[in-house]
Amino acid sequence: MSIWKHRHVTVVVSGGIASYKAAMLIRLLMKQGATVRVVMTVHATEFVTPLTFQTLTQQPVVTDEFTMTDPQHVVHVELADWTELMLVVPATANLIAKMAQGLADDVATTTILATTAPKLVVPAMNSHMFANPATQRNLAQLTADGVRVLDPATGMLAEGYAGKGRMPEPDEILNWATTVFLAQQTDLPLHGERVLVTAGGTREPIDPVRYISNRSSGKMGYAIAEAARNLGATVTLISAPSALATPAGVTRIDVTTAQDLLTAVEAEFKTTDMLVMAAAVSDYRPATTAMQKIKKQADHEPLTLHLTETADILKTLATVKQHQFVIGFAAETQALLANANRKLAAKKLDMIVANDVSKPGVGFNGDTNQVTMLRPEHEPVTTPLLSKAAVAEQILLTALQTREEE
Length: 406
Ligand SMILES: Cc1cc2nc3c(=O)[nH]c(=O)nc-3n(C[C@H](O)[C@H](O)[C@H](O)COP(=O)(O)O)c2cc1C
Fold this sequence. Notes:
Elements: E1 8-13, H1 19-31, E2 35-40, H2 50-57, H3 75-82, E3 85-91, H4 93-101, H5 107-114, E4 119-123, H6 127-131, H7 133-144, E5 148-149, E6 153-156, E7 162-166, H8 170-183, E8 194-199, E9 204-207, E10 210-212, H9 219-230, E11 234-239, E12 251-254, H10 258-269, E13 274-277, E14 284-286, E15 307-309, H11 313-318, E16 325-332, H12 336-346, E17 351-356, E18 368-369, E19 372-374, E20 381-382, E21 386-387, H13 388-405
Helix pairs in contact: 1-2, 1-8, 3-5, 4-7, 9-13
This protein binds flavin mononucleotide.
Pfam families: DFP, Flavoprotein
Family: In the C-terminal section; belongs to the PPC synthetase family. In the N-terminal section; belongs to the HFCD (homo-oligomeric flavin containing Cys decarboxylase) superfamily.
Catalytic activity: N-[(R)-4-phosphopantothenoyl]-L-cysteine + H(+) = (R)-4'-phosphopantetheine + CO2; (R)-4'-phosphopantothenate + L-cysteine + CTP = N-[(R)-4-phosphopantothenoyl]-L-cysteine + CMP + diphosphate + H(+)
């Protein structure tokens, strides 16, 4: 599930050296399921051909409003009304100035003026052009008009010197656009709420090169973070090592050990409305971490590692819990429901998601899962074997329903 699926996004491309990066952003939007249409300024066509965008979007590219192929519709009005979100990428100093003035002297500016959709502007230009008081004045005007402006990156410019004015990378732009777009959808069930998700398997160091960990891939936690975002929440993901990409619009905090994870969760918990502890946190860690790599023992003597319990995060949180709805996970290989029920009560959880990781298609690493949700004074609910994304959504919707009953 993606919040971009079937959404109507218009990308306005103006004539800067970063115009080619708009193609990459469009690819990312298309991958998320958006329907994208492109308007180009005449100067933009000097940098990238309309054919590139037409091929990527599988839609005609608008460069001129006076060649009316469809007598039923005026090009800019039809496009402006179709648009649900408008992205101006890259936005030249010139286009920004025109927008600030409300000019409409070509099809790009006319469409921008004619749409009521939210507008996101990504300035990209030479650092002196960006710092120029006129540009700064124009950007301040756009912000005052309710247009969202992404701050350019600082780095090497096409001119061969460093400065502020670079267009941020397409994945950063998508991230930002996702956050802005979601925040505007006030009818989503988790709108205005902060959801904290933990994911991945912690690593407890034995020595500088070895650690104790588990088979968690982080997929379930990442799916929950994404689902919470799609339901309108502001999401922070505390991630133990995982190879997965951060879902767009989600703030990720990286941790390694169980102790790091506890510290990070404690720092965020107060301002959280819902906590989902999907991380596989080590129950034990080596009592001491060797400063140097442990060598093979002489005479083939066995090596004994002394383990000590790690902090119990959920138990610690139970003592400071206020309004937060707390969801734990229980990955078990035997006596699933009995063990999960014990954990639910001992840790004062609002819900525990139990999964039997010994079953095929369930638990660690795979793309599917089947879970049983246990809540105090409720009958258990078992999902069918579903994609982790679908399971994630069911967990959050069940949590919301339970919270509403309270
Ligand atoms: C090689 C080249 C690169 C340019 N890069 C930029 C740029 O990155 N940002 C910018 O604001 N203008 C840039 N310009 C200037 C714009 O192309 C110029 O201001 C033009 O009038 C913008 O038209 P438009 O806003 O209608 O697309 C560049 C010009 C050239 C020739």
